[in-house]
């Protein structure tokens, strides 16, 4: 019973990937590692000799079950899912690696392969070609069969007529870029700056010859090499390389790009959205990084961040929009910043139909900001989305405190009249809520920060004349928001 359960679990963890007339291919796991299971339609006893050899291009064995006709190897991809006929130089390199494997089989193992066709080829997760299809392999000293089959395969893959010997001798007549790629995958971090620049330039020039797996690996390799000690120019070059390298999934790379703690890089990303914005579906994964740009002390970076969010607000979910607004409420308290937020709210107003944080931002800014006319103008846009009971108990008393302010008196009267007219249309909501259980429970609780603000409006205004404007303690910016940036934020 226990054995049956184990077999059922093993089957459940296998996913069908590909089928040919010779085998069926499954994704599976082996000893907690990603693996591939190949189940064959004919005997696979010929694979047994592979247990004793090791070659980078020849299929390796995790497990071989001759009786049941299957083997398990490292995770492989079907050749047809990766191969592209237009990458002609890379296809020559594929043929060259197969040729090397065949020479190894002939010279070192005395084995003829006997099945050199596309269905015998795979790619591993690193983008390297893998030779399988050993069902017909056997010991022999004559290799004409392999030579003929190899030439036919090269004709099919590359479209050229070449023998096995010529292909090995001339390194497949392919570009050096793939040999450079092998070296870089092995030791890119040890390259000098000039070597890295040459490598990046070569990759960018030949990107159309690379398969998606290589583009992804190269991009991660270049990004992983960026550190706080990397020069600003090289950081910018590396980021621009990733953005222009046609990686298959830009959404995978955007969070690490936005997490680079460098002001110049962040400004470059914010000012050049055309390099990536059409290749992603959402900005939600980078909202935390964008929020950091709002919190920072660098006013130019903060402004660019807000402008970027405004221009791409449709790519931010409602939940993450609220997170951005909460950040603005908590961390933007200087006059220039508050004006920036007010402009942002006015420009993107259709996006914020029902949100309490907009109400809290505007109440806070009415108390703290010198640009009260702009605050009132923004309130006039949003007041119908505010909670009616809060407008009755909090906002109207707050507004009345500014009726004696000559510079904004007309705007205050106008807004009060509009709010009263709106509340008259919804007076049932006010009465129902006023006598709710929740209201009774809160009668003896301390006043909210907004109520406290109402009580000391005049005091705040008086102090703002005598001393430089500072954030109220409730809204103060926390110190040391982030460590490790290229410069103090």
Automatic annotation (TrEMBL):
Q: Which domain of life is it from?
A: Eukaryota
Q: Where is this region: Disordered?
A: 463-489
Q: What is this protein called?
A: Protein kinase domain-containing protein
Q: Which organism is it from?
A: Encephalitozoon cuniculi
């Amino acid at each position: 019973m226990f054995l049956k359960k184990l077999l059922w679990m093993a089957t459940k963890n296998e996913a069908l990937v590909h089928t040919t007339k010779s085998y069926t291919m499954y994704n599976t796991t082996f000893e907690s590692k990603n693996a591939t299971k190949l189940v064959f339609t004919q005997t696979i006893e010929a694979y047994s000799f592979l247990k004793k050899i090791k070659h980078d291009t020849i299929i390796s064995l995790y497990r071989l079950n001759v009786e049941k006709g299957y083997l398990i190897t490292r995770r492989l991809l079907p050749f047809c899912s990766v191969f592209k006929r237009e990458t002609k130089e890379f296809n020559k390199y594929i043929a060259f690696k197969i040729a090397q494997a065949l020479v190894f089989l002939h010279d070192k193992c005395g084995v003829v392969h006997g099945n050199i066709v596309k269905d015998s080829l795979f790619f591993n997760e690193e983008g390297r070609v893998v030779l399988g299809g050993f069902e017909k392999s056997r010991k022999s000293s004559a290799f004409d069969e392999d030579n003929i089959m190899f030439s036919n395969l090269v004709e099919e893959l590359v479209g050229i007529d070449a023998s096995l010997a010529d292909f090995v001798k001339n390194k497949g007549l392919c570009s050096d870029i793939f040999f450079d790629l092998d070296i870089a995958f092995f030791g890119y971090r040890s390259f000098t700056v000039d070597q890295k620049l040459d490598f990046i330039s070569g990759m960018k020039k030949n990107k159309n010859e690379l398969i998606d797996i290589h583009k992804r690996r190269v991009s991660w390799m270049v990004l992983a090499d960026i550190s706080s000690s990397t020069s600003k120019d090289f950081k910018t070059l590396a980021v621009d390389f990733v953005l222009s390298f046609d990686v298959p999934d830009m959404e995978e790379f955007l969070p690490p790009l936005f997490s680079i703690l460098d002001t110049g890089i962040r400004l470059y990303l914010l000012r050049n959205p055309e390099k990536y914005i059409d290749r992603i579906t959402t900005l939600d994964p980078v909202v935390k990084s964008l929020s950091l740009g709002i919190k920072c002390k660098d006013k130019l970076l903060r402004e660019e961040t807000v402008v970027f969010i405004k221009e791409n607000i449709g790519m931010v979910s409602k939940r993450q929009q609220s997170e951005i607004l909460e950040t603005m409420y908590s961390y933007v308290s200087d006059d220039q910043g508050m004006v920036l937020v007010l402009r942002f709210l006015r420009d993107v107003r259709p996006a914020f139909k029902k949100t309490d944080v907009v109400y809290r931002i505007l109440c806070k800014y009415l108390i703290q900001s010198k640009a009260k006319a702009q605050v009132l103008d923004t309130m006039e846009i949003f007041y119908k989305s505010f909670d009616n009971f809060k407008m009755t108990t909090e906002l109207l008393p707050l507004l009345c405190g500014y009726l004696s302010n000559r510079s904004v008196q007309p705007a205050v009267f106008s807004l009060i009249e509009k709010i009263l007219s709106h509340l008259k249309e919804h007076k049932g909501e006010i009465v129902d809520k006023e006598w709710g259980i929740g209201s009774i429970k809160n009668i003896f609780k301390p006043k909210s920060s907004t109520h406290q603000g109402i009580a000391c409006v005049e005091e705040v205004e008086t102090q703002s004349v005598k001393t430089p404007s500072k954030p109220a303690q409730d809204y103060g910016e926390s110190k040391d928001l982030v460590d490790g940036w290229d410069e103090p934020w």
